């Protein structure tokens, strides 16, 4: 099936993109890598959209140091995230997540901003930024706005971004010496969305554990984090299984996903302990 688009315009900068959105009478959709939006249009899940192409806006791509944080432009592509040396050194969780995302062709086009704005509950980057404690930077008609990752994901495919706001960048804290990052997931085939997955960060201040494909939004598993801080892996697994809300579908039952989350957590703990030993 072919997509049904209501028009196309390429934005030259962020103010131009907002101007095009304001003039679109509600039909405007920002187009970044197109790997989710165009797929949805091809399936006619979305029709008559006025595509506002933001993919060529200068200054919204790449990774830069910003004091104790890294600033990642929203248009940075998945493949660039995977090979960026600053991310490899200071936020390896994001680098490691890339190999789990789809296939090379999609990773060459898809952008981190698109993945976050799309907010698929099975996607990897949303859970990564939760575990890292990232801040999302948006720009809209009222100016700039910073949104903590914990307040960003509201429901399936729904975020705190307004329709006329552009996600411009994401900033993450640089890892402190000795900090450990692990991502674990299970998918039926390489490149498929995860049946369930999790991200574990161990800092001197404590553990941060996020879970994806285990409910309508990725969550921080706070009960399990407390048990991990106390050094009790069994209690962490039990708490994790209790605090997620997986659903059953054609891929897996809720109870299988709940079981899997515990298995993945034990693997993540073993990897972190193995790396430290
Ligand atoms: C076959 C297939 C398999 C996939 N498997 C995975 C997977 O395993 N894991 C995974 O995480 N993803 C997967 N994806 C999705 C992929 O990662 C997409 O690239 C990503 O979800 C969307 O990024 P994009 O840049 O292509 O966004 P687009 O498709 O261009 O846009 C997606 C949505 O975000 C909005 N948007 C985009 N950028 C911005 C911005 N800067 N500000 C505000 N709104 C914005 C758009 O308006 C649209 O609503 C898969 C996709 C396909 C087609």
What helical percentage do the residues reach? Answer: 25-40%
Structural class: alpha+beta
Most strands sheet: 5 strands, antiparallel
> What is the average per-residue confidence, as pLDDT, rounded to a whole number?
95
Structural domain tally: 3
Can you list the strand order of the major beta sheet?
4-5-10-6-7
With helices defined by DSSP (H or I, 4 residues minimum), what is the helix count? 11
Distinct ligands: flavin-adenine dinucleotide
The span between the termini is 54 Å
Overall 3D geometry? globular
Strand content: 25-35%
In CATH, the topology of the largest domain is named Uridine Diphospho-n-acetylenolpyruvylglucosamine Reductase, domain 3
Low-confidence stretches: none
Number of strands: 14
In quaternary terms, these chains amount to single chain
Tell me what the structure shows.
The mean pLDDT is 95. The chain is built from eleven helices and 14 strands. It has three domains: 5-52, Uridine Diphospho-n-acetylenolpyruvylglucosamine Reductase, domain 2, CATH 3.30.43; 63-173, Uridine Diphospho-n-acetylenolpyruvylglucosamine Reductase, domain 3 (2-Layer Sandwich); 180-276, CO dehydrogenase flavoprotein, C-terminal domain (Enolase-like, domain 1, 2-Layer Sandwich), CATH 3.30.390.50. The chain has helices at 14-22, 37-42, 78-83, 85-90, 92-97, 104-109, 112-118, 124-132, 222-229, 233-243, 254-276; strands at 5-10, 28-31, 49-53, 63-66, 69-73, 135-140, 143-148, 153-155, 158-159, 166-173, 180-186, 196-203, 206-212, 219-220. 35% of the residues lie in helices and 26% in strands. The termini are far apart. Strands 4-5-10-6-7 form a five-stranded antiparallel sheet. It is α+β, with helices and mostly antiparallel strands and 277 residues long. The structure holds flavin-adenine dinucleotide. Flavin-adenine dinucleotide binds next to strand 2, helix 2, helix 7, helix 8 and strand 10. One of its GO terms (molecular function) is FAD binding. Residues 1-177 form the FAD-binding PCMH-type domain. This is Probable carbon monoxide dehydrogenase medium chain. Keywords: FAD, Flavoprotein, Oxidoreductase.
């Amino acid at each position: 099936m072919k997509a049904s688009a209501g028009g196309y315009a390429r934005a030259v900068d962020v103010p131009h993109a907002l101007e095009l959105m304001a003039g679109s009478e509600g039909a405007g959709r920002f187009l970044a890598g197109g790997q989710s939006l165009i797929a949805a249009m091809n399936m006619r899940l979305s029709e008559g959209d006025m595509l506002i192409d933001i993919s060529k806006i200068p200054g919204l791509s790449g990774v830069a140091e910003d004091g104790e944080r890294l600033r990642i432009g929203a248009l940075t592509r998945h493949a660039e995230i995977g090979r960026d040396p600053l991310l490899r050194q200071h936020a390896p969780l994001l680098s490691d997540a890339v190999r789990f995302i789809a296939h090379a062709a999609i990773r060459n086009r898809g952008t981190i901003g698109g993945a976050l704005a799309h907010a698929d509950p099975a996607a990897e980057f949303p859970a990564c930024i939760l575990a890292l404690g990232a801040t999302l930077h948006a720009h809209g008609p009222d100016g700039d706005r910073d949104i903590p990752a914990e307040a960003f994901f509201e429901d399936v495919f729904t975020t705190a971004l307004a329709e006329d706001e552009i996600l411009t960048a994401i900033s993450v804290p640089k890892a402190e010496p000795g900090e450990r990052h692990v991502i674990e997931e299970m998918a039926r085939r390489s490149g498929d969305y995860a049946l369930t997955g999790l991200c574990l960060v161990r800092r001197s201040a404590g553990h941060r554990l996020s879970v994806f494909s285990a409910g309508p939004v990725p969550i921080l598993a706070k009960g399990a984090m407390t048990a991990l801080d106390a050094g009790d892996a069994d209690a962490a697994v039990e708490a994790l299984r209790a605090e997620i809300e997986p659903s059953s579908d054609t891929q897996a039952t809720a109870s299988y996903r709940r079981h899997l989350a515990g298995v993945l957590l034990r693997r993540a703990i073993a990897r972190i302990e193995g790396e430290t030993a």
